Amino acid sequence: MKPANPKLIRSFFLKTWPIYALSLFFHFVSNWINVNVPKVLGKFTDQLQQGSLTHDSVISYSLLLLAIGIGQVLFNGGATYLVMYIGRKFEYHLRQRLFSHFTQMSERFYSNNGVGRLLSYFMNDVTAVRESISMGFNATANAAMLLTAAVTMMITSGIPLYLIAASVFPLLLIPFIVVYLGPVIRRRSLAVQESLGRMTELAEEQFGGVRVTKKFAAEDIMERRFNASVDEISRNQLRLVRVSSLFQALIPYLGTIALITALAFGGYLLIHGPITLGNFVALTLYVRMLMNPLQQIGNVINSIQRSRASLERLNGLLGQQSEIVEADDAQTVNLAAAELRIRDLTFAYNPGSQPVLQHIRLTLKPGQTLGIVGRTGSGKTTLMKLLLRMYDPPAGCIKFGNTDIRDLTLESLRSQIAYVPQDGFLFSTTIRENIAFHNREAKLCKVKTAAKQAQIYDNIAELPGSFNTRLGERGLTLSGGQRQRTSLARGLIKNAPLLILDDSVSAVDTVTEKEIIASIRRERADKTTIIIAHRISALKHADVILVLDEGAIVQKGTHEQLLREPGLYAELYAIQEEGLHHATGTSYS
Ligand SMILES: Nc1ncnc2c1ncn2[C@@H]1O[C@H](COP(=O)(O)OP(=O)(O)OP(=O)(O)O)[C@@H](O)[C@H]1O
């Protein structure tokens, strides 16, 4: 079995060991204070038996026990506070580190890991590890110190060594049980965490898709799918519970055996003389005192095994590197002056799978407008993802000027491109912040101008808080078309050298589309723009139009050129024009 990778924990311990050391010291003091209780009671018993107990000595015994109690509470409380504090710090840093790792991961990582699955790392795994490094540490330190202190006190109280050895021996079997059952618990915990991750993923998907579910009255199907995943968790949890219960029961059982040994053997020695009644009372109290921490140790070892499973998952996740790596000598290029050159670009999402783009060739001069049209699934968005280097294109196929896209810094590339997808995601913050996403400091007048260009200004102005309206609050959402235009405004305000509209006006009516396109042509006359659209009206003004079909360029030219040749473009245009004439009631000629 592969050992858990301790990187995360090690680096944390290296930074925080002084606090752990202080907590250990507090545990040490607290337990040394605590183990005096049986000794004091033993002495009390002996004095009682000898008839030498006075009123004064009863009061001093009581005061001593009170002092012991207060000291124990103070030091134990301090030790517990320190490790709990550190556990929360760990949780905080780990969540930050996970988030920063996630932000660096590539699009493929997100395609392979659903949102719910990623959330389960944040919630379940981080919590499991935190519990074991705080509560786990606490209980282990407590039990280990108590055991050492108790054995030492027994020896110094005059209890014969062979009696102590016989009474404590059953407890020494605990490590063997841990070695035997520990890996089983860890394996089963891993299965539980994996199934919890799948359930969170499914729940996230189902809540996200609840509107579709309701419209199709498919609640039953969804419920069955969800129940199956809950069933899986419950099966895995029961498998875990079976072995961890056995484990948890075995540890106190050994404690009981130790107590029986102390009673039987100690009682025998008491009757036959070698030990006093005080020794006997102290011995049984010490063994009894050890049972509680041992019970806790059972829980802790269980939780440590579970957290090792989570730690393996977290270290595995943090060990994954983004496939998009910046070259050591990555350069910056001014996209406003660099020609885009695509040469014989063939791309498949996965090795060995069918290429999604085939032999794409294209040159786009700065300031030109490129239109791309094609059937759904023909590879238009994929081409744009490659331009943003969301996926790595083959070396040498995409260049800006003379520089391969793979040799550019990601910051220089992506900061100079404004990409507006079809389903622009809006954050649950104000509309102003959503539009000024790339630069939260942008002046309101700029935000308003972008909103006007995207033809969304009037809609926003009518909202109760205008541009300061918070989306998602009290259920406030925008319609599909309004969302699309807000996301378009977010792209336009960036005023980037390269603007990519990926089917970004599909949800607006033709009149609004016309106004948006006219304003983009006006504002971006000297800047490069790529417009992907299903409606030819959105891109017919482009300097060059590509027609993609099954990943290949099947036609290329201006609107007029493409209309003159038979092909997909002319067919699409005829169909769309016919639809328009039907809609407006004019006859198509
Ligand atoms: N992450 C991915 N992994 C594997 N295949 C993918 C991935 N994304 C897209 N594809 C596949 O690549 C092909 C092209 O998809 P793409 O999104 O580029 O098409 P499109 O022309 O933009 O379509 P649409 O007009 O519907 O937006 C499709 O067959 C799609 O199934």
TrEMBL record:
It comes from the Bacteria. SMART domains: AAA. InterPro entries: AAA+_ATPase, ABC1_TM_dom, ABC1_TM_sf, ABC_transporter-like_ATP-bd, P-loop_NTPase, Type_1_exporter. The chain crosses the membrane at residues 12-33, 58-87, 137-155, 161-181, 243-263. It is a multi-pass membrane protein. It is found in: Cell membrane. Gene3D superfamilies: ABC transporter type 1, transmembrane domain, P-loop containing nucleotide triphosphate hydrolases. It holds the Pfam family ABC_membrane. One of its GO terms (molecular function) is ATP binding. SUPFAM superfamilies: ABC transporter transmembrane region, P-loop containing nucleoside triphosphate hydrolases. Coiled coil: none annotated. This is ABC transporter ATP-binding protein. It comes from Paenibacillus protaetiae.
